[in-house]
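User: For my dataset I need records formatted as: sequence, then structure tokens, nothing else. Please produce one.
Assistant:
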Amino acid sequence: MNAPTPQTLAFVRDPVSDEDTARANHYALLSRLLHAAPDASLLGMLAASGDWQIDDDAPSAEAVLMAQAWNGLCAASAAMDPAAAQDEFDALFGGVGRPEIVVFGSFYLAGFVNEKPLVKLRDDLAALGLARTQGESLPEDHIAAVCDVMRLLLTDTTRSAAERAQAQDRFFATHIQPWYGALCDALDAAAGANFYRRVSQYARSFLDVEAAALTIDP
């Protein structure tokens, strides 16, 4: 996704909080893992990043599952080599015709790709000043693309913190929350999923935390 076109004198209105920076990083990682197979550098980074400890005396169930899923993904990364990751990615998401795992929101929301949910998404992206990257052929409702939109919305300092929060909540509730669970279900059930089953568990746990946050009154 392209960021909004820079405007003259677009001053920073509110800095991004540490919490939102961390959330943006999770969205960026999900986008990267679901757009292409991890290379050796990414696998190595993940392998060295495990052992997430929760310091809270009474952590939420979502936080516990998130830590477990993160540590599982990092352990899987330590055991995975780039060639095997590429083979698994191609088997799950590639091939001629319909792939084993469909990664487009319209498929889960309307039963087919390139349906009305994609039109709604394009309208909402235009209203946010966002558009598909030039040369990108995949539809905007690819899971990697909508995760990247969330990253941009979290880090757009030309908006106030309140405006960022409102835009994030609306986008997530409309374009991610209704279908991410079905995508994760499909990945969990895929016979060929090994590393990407761990990616699915990480995606679900993080997005469950995001969904739970929407139910908390500001």
